[in-house]
Design goal:
The longest helix has 25 residues, at 133-157. The chain folds into 2 domains: 3-156, Jelly Rolls, CATH 2.60.120.10; 161-265, Arc Repressor Mutant, subunit A, CATH 1.10.10. The protein is built from 11 helices and 7 strands. Strand 1 (3-11) and strand 2 form a beta hairpin. 28% of the residues are buried. The protein has helices at residues 90-97, 116-127, 133-157, 161-173, 180-187, 191-202, 206-222, 225-228, 232-239, 244-255, 259-265, and strands at 3-11, 16-23, 37-51, 54-58, 63-66, 72-88, 108-110. Helix 9 (232-239) packs across helix 10 (244-255). The model is unreliable at 268-272 (pLDDT under 50). Helices cover 46% and strands 22% of the residues. Strands 1, 2, 3, 4, 5, 6 and 7 form a 7-stranded antiparallel beta sheet that branches. It starts with a strand and ends in a 7-residue tail after the last helix.
Length: 272
């Protein structure tokens, strides 16, 4: 068993199941799917989540939405992890989400921000349920998903073309040294307006976005370093960091693990 402890509370009137699970260090779920859609809050520890062929490191307070039937895999760090799950069955999602004209089939990951407050509200009811908990939990789920889906809709569908171009430029050039003035020249928009609108649309500053892209790049490389023989210094420079210590500091701040701990958690104990 990957999860050593599971506590479950069913909010019968709301039709929502909540579970707290403790996962053993350096364990892995393998590829799998769930019959229910799940909102997942990382309470402690960190893990690597792979969905839709994209891998993201999820640190404490990270939040995920995993739709029913979504094939995914989770690899846990050297300290394991404790996660809080809110399971929504097919009937619940159909009755409450389909009429909203939203795409509830797309998985989502949020690494920080205000959305965690709604998940923590559900967790508080899970720990101390009473006769009003069903109402509070369902309200918190609906507000969390409503705000999250609206945020995604606005950022991806209503962001102006120049802002989407900025995000594409960052994805294509995050390993290079790139300044706001470079982005401004590329899209023809004032730097301060770029910075303000990017944060409003995507919930991250441009610097935070670049840092996350670099850490995700390093994490993917670490899982495959035996294939290319790269050292940590090589990987740091390849990702755009100024040095190995700089990369290690940022990596640990975002994931809760050093690069060596991360690699060890994925089965390789020797890193050049």
């Amino acid at each position: 068993m990957v999860a050593t402890v599971r506590d479950r509370v069913r909010f019968q009137n709301a039709g929502i199941d909540c579970t707290r699970a403790l996962y053993t260090p350096a364990s892995s779920t393998g590829r799998h799917y769930h019959d229910d859609s799940n909102v997942v809050l990382a309470l402690s520890g960190s893990f690597t989540q792979t969905m839709c062929s994209r891998t993201t490191v999820v640190a404490p307070n990270g939040l995920m939405y995993v739709p029913e039937g979504e094939i995914h895999a989770t690899d846990f760090g050297p300290n394991g992890a404790c996660c809080f799950f809110v399971a929504l069955n097919e009937s619940w999602t159909r009755n409450r989400l389909e009429d909203s004209k939203i795409d509830a089939r797309r998985p989502k990951i949020a690494t920080g921000g205000y959305l965690q407050a709604f998940a923590l509200k559900m967790y508080a009811e899970f720990k101390n349920p009473d006769s009003l908990s069903d109402l509070i939990v369902e309200g918190a789920v609906l507000e969390l998903l409503g705000r999250w889906f609206r945020e995604c809709s606005r950022s991806h569908q209503h962001a102006p073309a120049w802002l989407r171009s900025v995000k594409t430029l960052l994805r294509d050039s995050f390993r290079e040294s790139i300044a706001l003035s470079d982005l401004s020249q590329a899209v023809g928009v004032h730097p301060s307006h770029i910075a303000r609108e990017f944060h409003r649309a995507y919930g991250l500053t441009i610097g935070e976005c670049v840092r996350k892209l670099r850490v995700d790049f390093i994490a993917e490389k670490l899982r495959n370093c035996e294939k290319d023989g790269s050292s940590l210094t090589d990987l740091a420079l390849e990702a755009g960091f100024s040095s190995h210590p700089h990369m290690s500091s940022v990596f640990k701040r975002l994931t809760g693990m050093t690069p060596s701990q991360y690699k060890k958690a994925h089965g390789i104990t020797s890193i050049p």
